[in-house]
Amino acid sequence: MDRFPHAADVDFHSPLDLSKAAAAVLDAEGRVSGWGVSAQRLLGHCAEEVLGRSAARLLVAPGQRLSGLCRAHRPHSTVLDLRCRDGHTLRAAVTVSPLSDRGGAATVVVAADLEALRGWEAQLALLQGMATESSVGLTIFDTDMNVVWGNVSTDRELAGIAQYVGRPAGDLFPEGEFISRHHPPDEDQVMAHVLATGEPILGMHYRGRAPADPVREHVWSCSYHRLVDARGEPLGLFEESLDVTDRYRAQERLSLLVRAGKRIGASLDVRRTAAELADVAVPQLADEVLVDLPPAVIEGRQPPTGSAPGHSLLRMHGRTPEEFRTSPVSYPATSPQAQSLATSRPVVDTGQPGGGSAGRCSSLFVPLLARDAVLGLATFRRGSNPDPFGPEEQALAVELAERAAVGIDNARRYTSQHAAALVLQRSLLPQRLPEQSAVDVAYRYLPADSRVGVGGDWFDLIPLSGARVGLTVGDVVGHGVHAAATMGRLRATVRTLALLDLDPAELLTRLDGLVSLDAEPHGDDRLGDETLGVTCLYAIYDPVSGRCVWASAGHPPPVVADANGSVALSALAPGPPLGLGSLPYENVELSLSNGSVVALFTDGVVEDRRTDIDSGIDRLAHVLTWQRCPLEELCDRVMSTLPPGPQADDATLLLVRTRRLDTRQVSDLELPPDPAMVARARTDTERQLDSWGLSDLSFTAELVVSELVTNSIRYATGPVVLRLIRDRSLLCEVSDNAHTAPHLRRARRDDEGGRGLFLVAQMSQRWGTRYTASGKTIWAELAIP
What is the pTM for the complete model shown? Predict the structure, then answer.
């Protein structure tokens, strides 16, 4: 199939060409003596109809003009209306040329359709305009790809085409290159392909420096076409080139802005945002980008206000975060950098030496402005193109600097908030765990990656009455200051409820009610969102019985390794997270041998984006088989199994090794509900303290025991149990089957009673009441001297 179906309609031969025009010969009398085939084709008259007859018969308006033309002594052209054989009139362009020979005078008449001639003249004018006036460069090459001809546009770009005629195409722009990558990258290969296949190559972008403008880099859109003769044989090829520098750079600026919108400021990191600005601007806008920031901005603090132009900044070097290093830099008051900072406007400077080269470079200094504050200075430098940054390039640099400034300011504010949240969170977590006899403890807290923000993990160890200890871990969904604040409030609430000696299920039930209230909308109270989805685990360990009771609100249950290294996982599913107020919580009771290791943890220890929670728990259980190791070492082993890279969530681990109190440290005495038994209680207390070497406490302890036992016998209906525990302090506990709690009050002078608990409170470190399934226990702690 013909690639150019309309090519036959394009004919650049003149209609007056003898191969196409109507030709006739007239004698001196104006009679037709010769009639060509082309004349018959134009007018329709055959030779027999016109030969020997007057040519005036062919004119629509016969007159003397034809005879006058026949007697002319030189060629002459005119326009005549000719009569065709079918009767219609043809307006023709006629050229008359006299002939002379020995036999007499004759005239050659050549005629063509006037309209066709005018069309040919327009085509000729078009060709002349393309050669002399068009802004499109046209260059013809022969089959050896040497220059043959160029139009005026090409002549201007090459500063004279004549010097390149006969030279290869590569001599025109020796340092140029194609920047379109969908065709052969070399011009010789492109031209050879067109010559060999006849297929044109269109719209190739070519970058180089024209001989007429060797300083400025240009971009041309080039197309190549093969030239063939009338027989279809290749004559060479021609190139069309149009300077599209301005359009190309506008497209580059647009694409650069699109890329900047996607990349700059997405990291929420001051240093990385500076690198993102350099990544986007190099090499399209500049060869190098430097970002100078005050130390305060890098550290997340407010930028300095009213600083002098020479104020010390830190220069950010490198185009990637891995290449970052900072070095102090100051600007003299007369420097263009200082001028840019002082005026908050971009400043162009062409006097800076090119980086490491002997030439000079162009620099553009743009202040980084955000929220009417100067955050620093961006410097755009280039040496490959020494032209000063033009207005459009300055506008582009300002746009990029504005985007970077917003990103840097957001990163600064985030850094500040993250640092504040981290300080808040760490201040709300235990700074150290209290020493006690029930357990040995070690813990690790690994905060989430700074880009995620601080989380809401917490842990705590709470000393309880009777040498028992409360253990808790929890997690607030979400990150940030509000999550940390919610965590602190919940931790304090758990500690308060724990000191009421509530069992784990009861404690979680009350905590669930408080969280449900916080989750309700309260106008400007923004803590409600964070309280949804809170998980918590609370356990109580009794070193006297070795009994551990725990309950969970949506939190992973503890993993227990006994003294032999056997690891047990709980089969009971946790209850619902706090704040849902749906299902009740259940207590799980374990009997732990001396030296068992209990692991309490948040999901950050056992779960991440790449592994599920079951795999993480198996990994933790495997580490706990080494439970004989010191707890600190076990903590390190567990944390070392976490996947490498940034943490998506806080990871909190609390390891507890249980202890059992020696039976010689505990004394139990059951007493009938008889007031006479008070004396026996005092006597047994004195004897037990003497055996423990605590005789100095006898008077105080006997008084406390006397008051507690007397109070219980007065209100109880069953036996009363006195327990003495020798721990870090002396613990005195009296249990009975009554559920009414005694109240401390100040007795009046005439009251006969009501002073017992007042005396107990005055003589003990702490005292209180806890409820059991069978009644209550009143306890008091006495300091051991």
Answer: 0.59
